Every structure is written in C-alpha cells, then in structure tokens.
Amino acid sequence: MQATRAARIINFHMGELRDAEPVKLIVGMLSAYPGAFADAESRLVQALGEVDLKSDLFAHEFTEYYRGEMGHPLVRYFLSFADLVSPDRLVTFKRLANRIERSIAASGEWPVVRPVNVDPGLIAPDKLVLASTKDYGHRIYLGRGIYAEVTLQCRRRGPDKPEWAPLEWTYPDYRTSGYHEFFSRVRARLLEQRREARA
C-alpha cells in the first residue's frame, strides 16, 4: 500500500517554471493633432529605444467617447519597438504611457484637455494583450494600478497570413483588417527575431 502511494508520488509531474519568451511592444496613439503624435513618439523613443515598424494612419470613427476631451477628427497610429521585451514589463510600459500623456497635456500646447491617448500592448505569436487602468470581468490585475486583457487571439499560428480573432469585448477598431495587417507585420518580425536569437 505504502509502496503504491510512493510510486504515485514519484510519477507525479509538476509543471516546470520557465521564464516567458520575449514579445514585441507596440504602442497605439490616438490624437487629432499631428504635433502631439510627434511629441509622444519622441518621448517614447527616448524611453524605450528604436522603432522598427510604423502603421498607416487610421481614421477613428467608431465612438464619440473621446471627442469632448480630445477633439475631432481623431486618428489612430501604431508603433512597434525594435527590442524584444519580457511580458511582465507591461505594467511599467502603461505607467510610462500615462506619464507621457499627462506631461503633454500639462504643456498647454493643445486646445483640449487630452491631446493624445497612448496605449501600450504586447504581441505574442498567439495573442495581442492590451493594458488598462480600468477593471472589468475579463481583465486581470497585474499590480500598481494596471490590468491586462487579451484583446485578440491569433488562431492561425503559422508565419504566413495569421488570422486575428476578436473576442466578446474586443474594441470595434481592433476588429478591422487594417489593424490586423499591422499586427501581422509585427508578429512576423517577432518570429524572425526569435529565430535570430536561437541561431
């Protein structure tokens, strides 16, 4: 009896602890003012290093939520940063983004209370994760006032033509093909950098 129990204990395999693989940091910016984009991008590069990919400019016509504090017409613009990062740094990136937003707003250069919205996220081979300061049922608290959500899943995980699948809570603009094309470019670069690191 005791020998059988001992055998069961020996044959029990616990999951091994491993560091997460590095991912790509992206930042989505929303503004009605090109100068605010330039200011935010300059501050981000100073803090986070070189940008390797930039998106097209996307008209943001999905909601009136931001119009009162940010102006109109709003445009979305994404950056991807060259260095791979550990996913546990998302809290740091979101808090940095909030500081940049507040500093640009405090400069008084723009006729709105919030000249630019700066939203960091992480792209892994199988998902896009966004950070938020707001709690909802689908978000996980990371600490220091920051939550995370999986906003998109990548259902087709090969290197070519990945398929981004929205979830119940995915924002309308994050469901669009233009965004998905940029995220696919970033994902392809991530896979390339991981291969280079293993070579």
State the gist of this model.
By secondary structure, the chain is α+β, with helices and mostly antiparallel strands. The protein is 34% helix and 28% strand.
Helix content range of the residues, please?
A: 25-40%
Proportion of beta-strand residues: 25-35%
Q: From the 3D coordinates, which CATH architecture would you assign? A: 2-Layer Sandwich
Decide which structural class fits the backbone.
alpha+beta
The CATH superfamily name is ACT domain
CATH topology: Alpha-Beta Plaits
Identify the notable features of this structure and list them briefly.
199 residues; alpha+beta; Alpha-Beta Plaits; nine-stranded antiparallel sheet; globular
Structure description:
- By secondary structure, this protein is α+β, with helices and mostly antiparallel strands.
- Helices cover 34% and strands 28% of the residues.
- The protein has one domain (22-198): ACT domain (Alpha-Beta Plaits), CATH 3.30.70.260.
- The chain contains 5 helices and 9 strands.
- Strands 1, 2, 3, 4, 5, 6, 7, 8 and 9 form a 9-stranded antiparallel sheet that branches.
- The protein is globular, with a radius of gyration of 20 Å.
